[in-house]
Fold this protein.
Amino acid sequence: MIRNLITFEVGGETFGIDSIAILEIRAWSTPTIVPGAPDYMVGVVNRRGIALPVVDLAIRLGWKPLEITERHAIIVISVNEQEIGLIVEAVSDMVSVDEEALQPPPAFDHQALIPFIDSLAAVDDRLMMILDPHALALGHSLAQAAA
């Protein structure tokens, strides 16, 4: 079976996410800060009259915050009927990967990134990390923080 992935960059690394989870890719717009939100949630933006929680994907992955500029993009995903915006440095391409070519993530103790990785795929002589959108939404209810 073939998986279609949108690829993007965060922290100089290449990631992919299943295109089925993606609702849209938006140009950068400055979020409104929400008091009491988790540290990885930078705020909310208006998406068709709904407050869309926006997450700094680098922080969510356990890395230092992105230095956000107008060139960043927001990938809007749907997870369990909840919409979340992920800030990424650049959206690259759509690639198709055969599921048989996917590799499981390495097993490391106490590695913050590993819970978010669904699998790894070799693309253009590099290993791309494929993110699990459901794992990205666990831990805090972003919809409640945005309300």
In short: The beta strands are 2-10, 13-18, 22-27, 41-47, 50-56, 73-79, 82-88, 90-98, 117-123, 126-131. The two ends are 39 Å apart (CA to CA).
